[in-house]
Specification:
The strands form 4 sheets. Strands 6-7-5-2-10-1-11-15-16-17 form a 10-stranded mixed β-sheet, with helices on both faces. The protein is α/β, with parallel strands linked by helices and 298 residues long. Helix 4 packs parallel to helix 7. The protein starts with a helix and ends with a strand. It has 7 helices and 17 strands.
Length: 298
């Protein structure tokens, strides 16, 4: 990602008042990790110390799913990480700050400080509930925390002061229109307004499913449909947009989405980068940045 875009995203993050930021994507290979690293590099350029972790795995030499090559994750001194002890580099040595009660496939999750710049691999919290505790622990060691995240793991962050950036790309959609629908639906869902307590409401325990949504729309439900947090809305794409168009959906613990990024190049297709960025900005109403170009969509 171009340094200018990373710095702009960093400024939006700091302006939001949040100390932690999570980057989530509409699918795989949509620029989520590239976005995270660009913001991290911008923070380094401004002399800011960051804590880093990943929901899943980041920094490995090859993708665990398809064995394709992946760029290494180089971290600067003073950076703090939450990762599996088994993947910490043996040389140069890291400073272990604390142990966690959580286990990963590569061993116990630990908090460590980078003592000399090196390539690191991040294997983060094993579940959504652990993510909240890990982020809070990292904030005790660093003023800012970046998370390479996932939609199904951010429920524990709802209602807190965490910022979110949504990444979308050509790799996760067959057409430009499909990509726009997907990112718009995800942003609408993540930005579900808080229920203000006014008027009649119907509280949903558990997930708001497609089948339940269809029944509510068919019954012409006028009450506010209230879920605990946006991750409980189990709808994507056109189904999600249709639901929000016909129902008043609210939540108890909202999320804070501050920007979007686009990756116009996928393995099987490429979108026009400028048209893609501007279409995402128009569809989401968010500041939108091209992952690989020095451009921000209006």
């Amino acid at each position: 990602m171009h340094a200018q875009a990373g710095d702009s995203l960093l400024q939006l993050w700091r302006g939001s008042g949040a100390r932690s930021l999570v980057v989530v994507g509409t699918g795989k290979n949509v620029g989520k990790t590239v976005t995270t690293r660009a913001i991290y590099r911008a923070a380094l350029d401004r002399g800011l110390v960051c804590g880093l972790t990943s929901v899943g795995r980041d920094g490995e030499t090859a993708d665990i799913v398809d064995a394709s090559g992946k760029p290494r994750l180089w971290l600067a001194p003073q950076t703090v990480v939450a990762t599996a002890r088994g993947v910490l580099p043996r040389s140069p040595a890291s400073e272990i700050l604390a142990l966690s009660p959580y286990m990963t496939a590569a061993g116990a999750l630990v908090y460590a400080r980078v003592r000399a710049g090196a390539n690191y691999e991040l294997i983060g919290p094993p579940n959504a509930s652990a993510l909240r505790a890990v982020v809070d622990a990292l904030l005790a060691f660093a003023p800012y925390v970046l998370v390479d995240g996932a939609i199904d793991r951010i429920a524990a962050l709802a209602g807190a002061r965490d910022a979110i950036v949504v990444a979308c790309g050509a790799a996760a959609a067959r057409t430009l229109d499909e990509a726009i629908v997907d990112v718009r639906a995800l942003v609408v869902r993540l930005r579900t307004p808080r229920f203000d307590g006014a008027g009649e409401s119907l509280a949903i325990e558990g997930a708001l499913s497609a089948a339940m949504t269809a029944r509510l729309i068919a019954a012409r439900e006028k009450r506010a449909i209230v879920v605990r947090d946006p991750t409980q809305i189990a709808l994507t794409g056109k189904a999600a947009l249709h639901a929000f168009e016909h129902l008043t959906i609210r939540c108890e613990r909202p999320l804070q989405v501050i920007a979007a990024t686009v990756a116009s190049i996928g393995r099987e297709r490429t979108f026009d980068p400028r048209a893609f960025a501007h279409a995402v900005a128009e569809a989401t109403g968010l500041p939108t940045f091209d992952v690989y170009a020095a451009e921000r969509a209006a």
